[in-house]
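SAMPLE LOG
Freezer: B-3
Tube label: C17
Construct: single chain, 347 aa
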Amino acid sequence: MSDTTEAELLDIPDMDPDAWAEYVEAQGWTDGLPLVPPAEAAVARMLESARGDNEPFPTITPRQVTPTLKSLAANAVMAGCRPEYFPVVLAALRGVLVADYNLHGTLATTHSCAPMVMVNGPLRQALNINCGSNCFGQGWRANAAIGRALQLILNNVGGAKPGVMDRSTFGSPAKYTFCFGENEEESPFAPYHARHGFDAGDSVVTVMSAEPNHNLNDHGSTSGLGLLTTFAGAIASPAANTVYGKGPYFIIFGPEHAATLARDAWTVEKIQHFLYEKARVPLFQVSKENQRMYEESGHLPEDGFYKVAPTPDDIHVAVAGGAGKHSAWVPSFGGTAAISVRVKQPG
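STRUCTURE (predicted):
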Protein backbone atom coordinates (compact mmCIF):
# COMPACT_ATOMS: atom_id res chain seq x y z
CA MET A 1 0.00 0.00 0.00
CA SER A 2 1.09 3.62 -0.46
CA ASP A 3 -0.02 6.28 2.02
CA THR A 4 -3.42 4.67 2.55
CA THR A 5 -5.60 4.67 5.64
CA GLU A 6 -6.48 1.59 7.66
CA ALA A 7 -10.04 0.29 7.53
CA GLU A 8 -12.08 1.47 10.52
CA LEU A 9 -13.66 -1.88 11.34
CA LEU A 10 -13.05 -5.55 10.66
CA ASP A 11 -15.97 -7.96 10.94
CA ILE A 12 -14.57 -10.89 12.92
CA PRO A 13 -17.01 -13.75 13.49
CA ASP A 14 -17.66 -15.12 16.97
CA MET A 15 -15.48 -18.14 17.67
CA ASP A 16 -14.18 -20.19 20.57
CA PRO A 17 -10.61 -19.63 21.87
CA ASP A 18 -9.10 -22.44 19.79
CA ALA A 19 -10.74 -21.20 16.61
CA TRP A 20 -9.67 -17.64 17.41
CA ALA A 21 -6.06 -18.74 17.85
CA GLU A 22 -6.13 -20.51 14.49
CA TYR A 23 -7.80 -17.51 12.85
CA VAL A 24 -5.23 -14.91 13.97
CA GLU A 25 -2.39 -17.23 13.03
CA ALA A 26 -3.85 -17.60 9.54
CA GLN A 27 -4.15 -13.80 9.27
CA GLY A 28 -0.50 -13.36 10.31
CA TRP A 29 -1.49 -11.12 13.23
CA THR A 30 0.13 -13.05 16.04
CA ASP A 31 3.58 -12.97 17.60
CA GLY A 32 3.18 -16.65 18.41
CA LEU A 33 1.51 -16.13 21.79
CA PRO A 34 -2.26 -16.05 22.38
CA LEU A 35 -4.02 -12.78 21.55
CA VAL A 36 -7.02 -11.17 23.25
CA PRO A 37 -9.97 -10.79 20.81
CA PRO A 38 -10.41 -7.06 20.00
CA ALA A 39 -14.13 -6.80 20.79
CA GLU A 40 -15.76 -3.43 20.03
CA ALA A 41 -16.36 -2.67 23.72
CA ALA A 42 -12.72 -3.36 24.61
CA VAL A 43 -11.48 -1.18 21.74
CA ALA A 44 -13.85 1.61 22.81
CA ARG A 45 -12.43 1.53 26.35
CA MET A 46 -8.93 1.74 24.92
CA LEU A 47 -9.90 4.73 22.76
CA GLU A 48 -11.40 6.54 25.74
CA SER A 49 -7.98 6.50 27.42
CA ALA A 50 -6.44 8.25 24.39
CA ARG A 51 -8.60 11.38 24.48
CA GLY A 52 -5.52 13.50 25.24
CA ASP A 53 -3.69 12.44 22.06
CA ASN A 54 -5.32 14.13 19.07
CA GLU A 55 -2.30 14.66 16.83
CA PRO A 56 -2.47 12.61 13.61
CA PHE A 57 0.09 9.85 13.12
CA PRO A 58 2.40 9.75 10.12
CA THR A 59 2.47 6.70 7.90
CA ILE A 60 4.02 3.56 9.29
CA THR A 61 6.72 1.84 7.25
CA PRO A 62 7.10 -0.44 5.34
CA ARG A 63 3.45 -0.50 4.20
CA GLN A 64 3.23 3.31 4.35
CA VAL A 65 -0.18 3.06 5.97
CA THR A 66 -1.66 5.95 7.90
CA PRO A 67 -3.08 4.24 10.98
CA THR A 68 -6.42 4.99 12.54
CA LEU A 69 -6.58 5.23 16.31
CA LYS A 70 -8.99 2.28 16.25
CA SER A 71 -6.47 0.02 14.53
CA LEU A 72 -3.84 0.96 17.10
CA ALA A 73 -6.30 0.37 19.94
CA ALA A 74 -7.24 -3.05 18.54
CA ASN A 75 -3.60 -4.13 18.60
CA ALA A 76 -3.22 -2.86 22.17
CA VAL A 77 -6.26 -4.94 23.17
CA MET A 78 -4.81 -8.01 21.45
CA ALA A 79 -1.50 -7.47 23.31
CA GLY A 80 -3.29 -7.61 26.66
CA CYS A 81 -3.09 -3.90 27.52
CA ARG A 82 -5.26 -2.28 30.12
CA PRO A 83 -6.80 0.97 28.74
CA GLU A 84 -4.55 3.10 30.95
CA TYR A 85 -1.48 1.63 29.20
CA PHE A 86 -2.58 2.92 25.79
CA PRO A 87 -1.17 6.50 26.05
CA VAL A 88 2.26 4.97 26.79
CA VAL A 89 1.95 2.74 23.72
CA LEU A 90 1.05 5.75 21.57
CA ALA A 91 4.00 7.76 22.88
CA ALA A 92 6.34 4.85 22.10
CA LEU A 93 4.89 4.62 18.59
CA ARG A 94 5.42 8.33 18.05
CA GLY A 95 9.02 7.85 19.14
CA VAL A 96 9.82 5.11 16.63
CA LEU A 97 8.17 7.17 13.86
CA VAL A 98 10.64 10.05 14.34
CA ALA A 99 12.95 10.08 11.30
CA ASP A 100 16.18 9.76 13.31
CA TYR A 101 14.97 6.49 14.83
CA ASN A 102 15.22 5.01 11.30
CA LEU A 103 12.25 2.66 11.60
CA HIS A 104 12.48 1.25 8.08
CA GLY A 105 16.18 0.46 8.42
CA THR A 106 15.77 -1.10 11.85
CA LEU A 107 12.88 -3.27 10.69
CA ALA A 108 14.55 -4.49 7.49
CA THR A 109 17.99 -5.26 8.91
CA THR A 110 19.48 -8.71 9.53
CA HIS A 111 20.54 -7.42 12.96
CA SER A 112 18.62 -8.65 16.04
CA CYS A 113 17.38 -5.23 17.15
CA ALA A 114 13.96 -4.44 18.60
CA PRO A 115 12.36 -1.29 20.07
CA MET A 116 13.57 -0.74 23.63
CA VAL A 117 10.95 1.20 25.62
CA MET A 118 11.98 2.95 28.85
CA VAL A 119 9.37 4.79 30.91
CA ASN A 120 10.05 7.70 33.27
CA GLY A 121 7.86 9.76 35.54
CA PRO A 122 4.73 9.21 37.66
CA LEU A 123 3.07 6.73 35.29
CA ARG A 124 5.68 4.12 36.22
CA GLN A 125 4.05 3.71 39.61
CA ALA A 126 0.49 4.42 38.51
CA LEU A 127 0.67 1.61 35.94
CA ASN A 128 2.81 -0.74 38.06
CA ILE A 129 5.64 -0.75 35.52
CA ASN A 130 8.53 -2.75 36.92
CA CYS A 131 11.63 -0.60 37.43
CA GLY A 132 13.38 -2.81 39.99
CA SER A 133 14.30 -6.46 40.40
CA ASN A 134 13.78 -8.47 37.18
CA CYS A 135 12.67 -5.34 35.29
CA PHE A 136 13.75 -6.85 31.96
CA GLY A 137 12.02 -10.14 32.77
CA GLN A 138 8.65 -11.74 33.23
CA GLY A 139 5.88 -11.19 35.74
CA TRP A 140 4.63 -7.63 35.11
CA ARG A 141 1.65 -7.11 32.86
CA ALA A 142 2.43 -3.47 32.05
CA ASN A 143 6.00 -4.20 30.93
CA ALA A 144 4.91 -7.18 28.86
CA ALA A 145 1.81 -5.66 27.27
CA ILE A 146 3.14 -2.19 26.43
CA GLY A 147 6.20 -3.49 24.58
CA ARG A 148 4.15 -6.23 22.96
CA ALA A 149 1.52 -3.76 21.73
CA LEU A 150 4.18 -1.68 19.97
CA GLN A 151 5.55 -4.81 18.30
CA LEU A 152 2.10 -5.92 17.16
CA ILE A 153 1.41 -2.48 15.69
CA LEU A 154 4.67 -2.57 13.72
CA ASN A 155 3.80 -6.08 12.52
CA ASN A 156 0.10 -5.75 11.79
CA VAL A 157 -0.22 -2.10 10.77
CA GLY A 158 3.30 -1.39 9.56
CA GLY A 159 3.74 -4.74 7.84
CA ALA A 160 7.05 -5.77 9.45
CA LYS A 161 6.31 -9.47 9.09
CA PRO A 162 9.05 -11.85 10.31
CA GLY A 163 10.84 -13.46 7.40
CA VAL A 164 9.17 -11.08 4.92
CA MET A 165 10.08 -7.51 5.86
CA ASP A 166 11.77 -8.29 9.17
CA ARG A 167 14.89 -10.06 7.90
CA SER A 168 16.68 -10.54 11.22
CA THR A 169 19.10 -13.47 11.07
CA PHE A 170 18.30 -14.64 14.59
CA GLY A 171 15.85 -12.18 16.10
CA SER A 172 15.79 -12.03 19.90
CA PRO A 173 13.39 -12.34 22.84
CA ALA A 174 13.26 -8.52 22.82
CA LYS A 175 11.09 -8.80 19.70
CA TYR A 176 8.25 -9.97 21.93
CA THR A 177 8.60 -7.05 24.34
CA PHE A 178 11.39 -4.87 25.74
CA CYS A 179 9.79 -2.41 28.15
CA PHE A 180 10.88 -1.29 31.62
CA GLY A 181 10.92 1.77 33.85
CA GLU A 182 13.87 3.71 35.22
CA ASN A 183 14.38 3.12 38.96
CA GLU A 184 14.26 6.82 39.80
CA GLU A 185 13.70 6.15 43.51
CA GLU A 186 17.05 4.36 43.92
CA SER A 187 19.03 6.45 41.46
CA PRO A 188 21.62 8.90 42.81
CA PHE A 189 21.35 10.83 39.53
CA ALA A 190 18.58 13.07 38.22
CA PRO A 191 15.98 11.03 36.30
CA TYR A 192 16.85 10.36 32.67
CA HIS A 193 13.97 12.43 31.30
CA ALA A 194 14.78 15.41 33.55
CA ARG A 195 18.31 15.39 32.11
CA HIS A 196 16.86 15.50 28.60
CA GLY A 197 14.68 18.59 28.75
CA PHE A 198 11.48 17.36 30.41
CA ASP A 199 9.97 18.30 33.74
CA ALA A 200 10.55 15.74 36.48
CA GLY A 201 6.75 15.43 36.86
CA ASP A 202 6.24 14.53 33.19
CA SER A 203 5.74 10.93 32.16
CA VAL A 204 8.08 10.22 29.26
CA VAL A 205 8.81 7.26 27.00
CA THR A 206 12.28 6.79 25.48
CA VAL A 207 12.76 4.38 22.58
CA MET A 208 15.86 3.07 20.85
CA SER A 209 16.39 0.25 18.37
CA ALA A 210 18.40 -2.09 20.55
CA GLU A 211 19.78 -5.50 21.23
CA PRO A 212 18.58 -7.16 24.44
CA ASN A 213 20.41 -6.19 27.61
CA HIS A 214 23.94 -7.58 28.07
CA ASN A 215 24.66 -8.30 31.72
CA LEU A 216 27.64 -6.50 33.28
CA ASN A 217 28.84 -8.46 36.29
CA ASP A 218 31.31 -6.92 38.73
CA HIS A 219 31.26 -8.27 42.28
CA GLY A 220 34.90 -7.45 42.94
CA SER A 221 35.35 -3.75 42.26
CA THR A 222 34.79 -1.49 45.25
CA SER A 223 35.36 1.82 43.48
CA GLY A 224 33.61 3.70 40.72
CA LEU A 225 36.80 3.63 38.65
CA GLY A 226 37.02 -0.13 39.03
CA LEU A 227 33.43 -0.61 37.91
CA LEU A 228 33.80 1.62 34.87
CA THR A 229 37.06 -0.09 33.90
CA THR A 230 35.22 -3.43 33.85
CA PHE A 231 32.30 -2.02 31.92
CA ALA A 232 34.49 -0.27 29.35
CA GLY A 233 36.15 -3.59 28.58
CA ALA A 234 32.79 -5.29 28.02
CA ILE A 235 31.42 -2.48 25.83
CA ALA A 236 34.53 -2.53 23.61
CA SER A 237 33.18 -5.45 21.58
CA PRO A 238 34.54 -5.95 18.04
CA ALA A 239 31.45 -7.95 17.03
CA ALA A 240 28.67 -5.59 18.15
CA ASN A 241 27.07 -3.09 15.77
CA THR A 242 28.39 -0.31 17.99
CA VAL A 243 31.88 -0.91 16.58
CA TYR A 244 30.75 1.05 13.52
CA GLY A 245 30.71 4.13 15.78
CA LYS A 246 27.47 5.42 14.26
CA GLY A 247 24.87 5.14 16.97
CA PRO A 248 24.06 5.40 20.66
CA TYR A 249 24.03 2.87 23.45
CA PHE A 250 22.63 2.70 26.97
CA ILE A 251 24.45 1.74 30.11
CA ILE A 252 21.92 0.95 32.82
CA PHE A 253 23.43 0.77 36.27
CA GLY A 254 21.97 -1.42 38.97
CA PRO A 255 21.30 0.57 42.16
CA GLU A 256 24.28 -0.91 44.03
CA HIS A 257 26.73 -0.01 41.27
CA ALA A 258 25.12 3.42 40.88
CA ALA A 259 25.54 4.10 44.61
CA THR A 260 29.26 3.28 44.39
CA LEU A 261 29.71 5.60 41.43
CA ALA A 262 27.91 8.46 43.15
CA ARG A 263 29.90 7.93 46.36
CA ASP A 264 33.09 8.36 44.34
CA ALA A 265 31.78 11.57 42.72
CA TRP A 266 31.15 10.10 39.28
CA THR A 267 28.54 12.31 37.61
CA VAL A 268 26.64 11.27 34.50
CA GLU A 269 28.82 13.58 32.42
CA LYS A 270 32.04 12.11 33.84
CA ILE A 271 30.77 8.57 33.19
CA GLN A 272 29.96 9.46 29.58
CA HIS A 273 33.38 10.95 28.94
CA PHE A 274 35.21 8.06 30.61
CA LEU A 275 33.37 5.43 28.57
CA TYR A 276 33.77 7.45 25.37
CA GLU A 277 37.54 7.45 25.83
CA LYS A 278 38.07 4.00 27.34
CA ALA A 279 35.38 1.81 25.74
CA ARG A 280 37.12 1.53 22.37
CA VAL A 281 38.00 -1.51 20.30
CA PRO A 282 41.73 -2.14 19.81
CA LEU A 283 42.82 -2.31 16.18
CA PHE A 284 44.40 -5.74 16.67
CA GLN A 285 40.98 -7.20 17.59
CA VAL A 286 39.51 -6.21 14.23
CA SER A 287 40.16 -8.41 11.22
CA LYS A 288 42.02 -6.99 8.23
CA GLU A 289 38.90 -7.47 6.11
CA ASN A 290 36.77 -5.46 8.55
CA GLN A 291 39.43 -2.78 8.81
CA ARG A 292 39.21 -2.31 5.05
CA MET A 293 35.41 -2.17 5.20
CA TYR A 294 35.46 0.41 7.98
CA GLU A 295 37.99 2.50 6.08
CA GLU A 296 35.76 2.49 2.99
CA SER A 297 32.86 3.79 5.11
CA GLY A 298 34.99 6.53 6.65
CA HIS A 299 35.30 4.95 10.10
CA LEU A 300 39.00 5.20 10.89
CA PRO A 301 40.87 4.17 14.04
CA GLU A 302 42.24 6.81 16.38
CA ASP A 303 45.57 6.03 18.07
CA GLY A 304 45.04 2.34 17.32
CA PHE A 305 41.43 2.13 18.56
CA TYR A 306 37.93 2.27 17.04
CA LYS A 307 35.43 4.37 18.98
CA VAL A 308 32.02 2.79 19.59
CA ALA A 309 29.91 5.94 20.05
CA PRO A 310 29.95 9.11 17.94
CA THR A 311 30.08 11.47 20.95
CA PRO A 312 29.91 11.22 24.75
CA ASP A 313 26.28 12.38 24.56
CA ASP A 314 25.45 9.24 22.57
CA ILE A 315 26.21 7.22 25.72
CA HIS A 316 22.93 7.19 27.62
CA VAL A 317 23.00 6.62 31.37
CA ALA A 318 20.08 5.31 33.41
CA VAL A 319 19.46 3.32 36.61
CA ALA A 320 17.16 0.30 36.85
CA GLY A 321 16.95 -3.13 38.43
CA GLY A 322 17.16 -4.32 42.00
CA ALA A 323 19.64 -5.67 44.52
CA GLY A 324 22.83 -7.28 43.22
CA LYS A 325 26.16 -6.19 41.80
CA HIS A 326 25.03 -6.19 38.19
CA SER A 327 24.47 -3.53 35.56
CA ALA A 328 23.49 -3.75 31.90
CA TRP A 329 24.78 -2.62 28.53
CA VAL A 330 22.16 -2.13 25.82
CA PRO A 331 23.83 -1.71 22.41
CA SER A 332 21.84 -0.08 19.64
CA PHE A 333 21.37 -1.14 16.03
CA GLY A 334 23.81 1.62 15.15
CA GLY A 335 21.90 3.62 12.56
CA THR A 336 19.30 4.82 15.04
CA ALA A 337 18.76 7.36 17.82
CA ALA A 338 17.33 7.44 21.33
CA ILE A 339 14.04 9.36 21.09
CA SER A 340 12.06 10.64 24.08
CA VAL A 341 8.35 11.54 23.88
CA ARG A 342 6.07 12.93 26.59
CA VAL A 343 3.01 10.78 27.28
CA LYS A 344 -0.26 12.60 26.53
CA GLN A 345 -2.83 11.59 29.14
CA PRO A 346 -6.62 12.07 29.08
CA GLY A 347 -7.66 15.53 30.19
